[in-house]
Amino acid sequence: MVLAGIGSLTLMDDRSVTEDVLQSNFLIPPDEAYYSGRSLDELCCESLKDFNPMVRVSVEKGDLSQFDGEFFDKFDAVVLSCCSLKTKKAINEKCRRRPRRVAFYAIECRDSCGEIFVDLQKYTYIQVMSSYVAPCLDYILDCYKHGCLDTSDASKKSDGTAECQLNYPSLEEAISIAWRDLPRKVSKVYFAMRVIERFELSEGRNPGETSISDLPLILKMRKELCDAQSLGESYIPTSLLERILAAGGKEHPPVCAILGGVLGQEVIKAISGKGDPLKNFFYFDTADGKGIIEDMSNSSTS
Amino acid sequence: MASGSQLEAIKIDMDTIEVSNLNRQFLFRQSHVGQSKAKVARDAVLKFRPHINITPCHANIKDPEFDVEFFKKFNVVLNGLDNLDARRHVNRLCLAAEVPLVESGTTGFLGQVTVHVKGKTECYECQPKPTPKTYPVCTITSTPSKFVHCIVWAKDLLFAKLFGDKNQENDLNVRSSDGTNSTNHTEDVFERRTDEDPEQYACKIYDHVFGYNIEVALTNEETWKSRNKPRPLYVRDVLPDNLIQQNGSLENSVTEESVVSSMSSLGLKNPQDIWSLSENSKIFLEALRLFIERRQKDIGNLTFDKDDQLAVEFVTAAANIRASSFGIPLHSLFEAKGIAGNIVHAVATTNAIIAGLIVIEAIKILQGDFENLRMTYCLEHPSRKMLLMPVQPFEANKSCYVCSETPLLLEINTRTSKLRDFVEKIVKNKLGMHSPLIMHGSTLIFEAGDGLEEDVVANYALILDKALAELPAPVTSGTVLTVEDLHQEFSCNINIKHREEFDEEKEPDGMVLAGWIAPTQKDARIVSNGESTSAAHPAVTEMVEKSDDVEIAREKPGTKRKLSEMSEMIDHVHDIKPCSSHDVGDQVHPQEVEDNDDDDDIVILDENPETRKKKRLQ
Predict the structure, then answer these.
(1) In this structure, are A12 and A111 located in the same domain?
(2) Residue B49 neighbours by CB distance under 10 Å
(3) Concatenated DSSP letters for B27-65?
(4) Which of A48, A115, A139 to mutate to test the interface with B (most CBs of B within 10 A)?
(5) pLDDT in the model for residue A184
(6) A172 located within any domain
(7) Locate the Ubiquitin/SUMO-activating enzyme ubiquitin-like domain: which residues (chain B) (predicted)?
(8) Which residues of B touch A288 (CB under 8 A)?
(9) Residues in chain B, pLDDT under 50
């Protein structure tokens, strides 16, 4: 995002440097004398400033969940990572209540898989529909499904662009959809993340504060959730849960690059109002190598 | 990738850092401009991985020091190249050294990572790579319909005629309906007399190419029966108050600058602006004047260089004026430069994704996990919900002349084609060999490369001009030639078949190389959480580059870039700048053909219709 030349970037992360962080964050030189006593946001800020002198990179201190709604008016987009479900929901709600849209993104990278959530509320954007573009059949069908490909010529302009509108559900709405009502063959990572989320919530753990010894409790949580949703437990592979638990807070650097690349591109699209935005979840898992977009929105909200 | 403690790596890069790299090559800073990429990258990585072992090499990967023995030292090779020629070269060396190769490329928002392991998967050359896009000569000289046609005209015809080698043949002057060449009209309009005022000369050229030549073309009624007619443009109409005529103050304001530019002398500062016809015309005249007055010594030996500001300005203006004449939308200098310079979008986020995917495959190779290797395609728009599409690598193509040693067939007129043509067009260009040996049976016909003695080279130079059938060991129909490149450790047999005639438009080279059979029925499997199902379906086509590689369908000796270099596959990170987002026409992504059983996690991929369309154009 900084390389692309956004106006400004504000970082908030009061955690200290750990071994896990040094393994996957190349913005921080592994020099204890240098980083000792400084929080991650300060350290990353210093490095990021170097990437593009035209971008204002700064740090904000404090507890984000305590900030008033007005704080978010300064921003076009908010990206959360390593936050609890409670925090994610609260910030998402605050963003949605602002008079001017604040785009909301949440990203989680666990072991060698990850999830991105996008909430652009009611989003209108320019779509390039020039005759040069040969969209694949699915893409066109997706557009019709979302009601954003207007068959009337009214929204089409002479320069081959068209105006599209999408409606995004909030995080709360999205994850409240009954599992049986979700589209077929949704990525398993979605469910695994929900189980772990619930687990961390009920055990009062920080995000990523898990280990393989938590497996029995996790499997219990899985059973609870699956029963409540009338789904078989095997729907959420044990091996996937094991991987994520064992990794704890570790992030696999190439997966960070992949998720980060996708997320960075999404933020730039939203800020510029150009380009088809992702709706509304993205998953990547090294195990199968797929990068999947899942549209999980109730028909009432979409 | 730099997190393994025992890792030893060598980074080879012949480039130096340029300002335009900084928007995505984040290991570099402004202060590094001009320095070696390999060295600066290594230093930057050491900052966050102090104990890693990386050796930088500021060198060309095609240098002889990087031979098979060199490649054998490695467990894996990761390519980040920006041209087809180098990729083929490395492919052959990796095959000879039996080292797995991870190939990759990006073009705008598209990208892909492929893995090549000898004996297990295809090599990089098993699937045909698109050849450079060429346009029929008449489209360029008479009936342009796209902006790129105007660029090719401006760059390869007009610019070449005005500033290039005078002895080069040039199709610039249109034939009128009565068959006479339009230069019969004036003695050679393009020759400037030494006493001819540069501004007047510029106006004369303008009127000739945009006015007179168009009028001549219009006399051929047949051409315009079902096409929009172009309109002739003359300076007196487009610039009625031609400020250049009122010189004096304008000229004096141009100070002695290191970079001569018509934009700055006209005060048109923003390269992203789309200039009007009159602005383009002013730029045209001013740029031409500046070439004459300030760069006289260059005139007569210039070829278009995208880094030559004045040349880019001139070509932009000329292309735009022609476009205006033909009713084609105009483009900004920024966009025109991208098209003329074959520049392709490089998007930092796409590069990040591809880089991550490269590392994932590299780690598998280093861990010996060959069963789980995959190819991954990064799309701009999702297909079956997928933005990143994994595909199981294909088996080697049994007809691949590179990894399977199948002979090729060459149809050529052995009586008229010279050995030189064979060497340049087939051996070097199509087969990608740099230091070839050509054998006819056990007779060595020809050699090229470093390390040959002068008299040997001189002898070979003599026979290059001989027709194939007139060589000491005559090459005729039925002859089998063996062509080898010792550096690449690559050898292949070519069966020669004599043919008298070749179609000038469709077979401009006067020879046809065949015998390489495209893979047809292939199993492609998307690896999916342990399940594996298969379905027969057509092969995945390599994603085609987005940029329009343009070259008139005629060989031009002495052009700076070889044909093979111009046929860029998806470019990787190097010196590439954004180009027009309009010409997304060549965006290709694997397209779904069949909808199988919903329970399968398979995407069936087929050649994109766009690719087929493009093939027809060639």
Answers:
(1) yes
(2) 20
(3) T--GGGTTSBHHHHHHHHHHHH-TT-EEEEE-S-TTSTT
(4) A139
(5) 74
(6) no
(7) 410-502
(8) 390, 526-529, 601
(9) 1-4, 176-177, 245-254, 518-618
8 Å CB contact of A138 and B382: yes
Residue B467 lies in a domain: yes
Q: According to the model, what pLDDT value does residue A39 have?
A: 96
Please indicate whether, in this complex, the C-beta atoms of B382 and A284 are within 8 angstroms of each other: no
Model pLDDT, residue A157: 56
The pLDDT of A246-252, averaged and rounded, is 91
Question: Strand runs (DSSP E) across A26-136, as ranges?
Answer: 56-59, 77-81, 103-110, 113-119, 122-128
Nearest CA in chain B to A27: B48
CATH assignment of the domain containing A76:
3.40.50.720
The answer to ipTM > 0.95 is no
User: Among all chains, which residue has been given the structure tokens 């990608």?
Assistant: B432
Nearest to B359 among A138, A254, A265 (CB): A254
Q: Which residues of A62-94 are buried (b: 16+ CB within 10 A; e: fewer)?
A: eebeeeeeeebeebbbbbbbbbbbebbbbbbeb
Whether residues A261 and B349 touch (CB distance < 8 A) is answered with yes
Contacts of A26 in chain B (CB under 8 A): 48
Specify whether the backbone of B119 is left (phi greater than 0), alpha (psi in -120 to 50) or beta: left
Residue A221 lies in domain: 177-247
The owner of tokens 């962080």 is: A21
Q: Confirm whether B94 is a catalytic residue.
A: no
Specify the number of domains making up chain B: 3
Query: Does B272 share its domain with B166?
Result: yes
Residues of B whose CB is below 8 A from A293: 382, 385-387
Look at the pTM and tell me if it is higher than 0.80.
no
Range of the domain at B35: 8-132+345-391
CATH number at residue B205: 1.10.10.520
Q: Is residue B183 part of a domain?
A: no
Q: How many residues are present in chain B? A: 618
For A75-126, write each residue's pLDDT tens digit.
999 999 999 999 999 999 999 999 999 999 999 999 899 999 999 999 988 7
The predicted structure's pLDDT at residue B569: 29
Across the interface, whether the CB atoms of B359 and A132 are under 8 A apart is answered no
Q: How many domains does chain A have?
A: 3
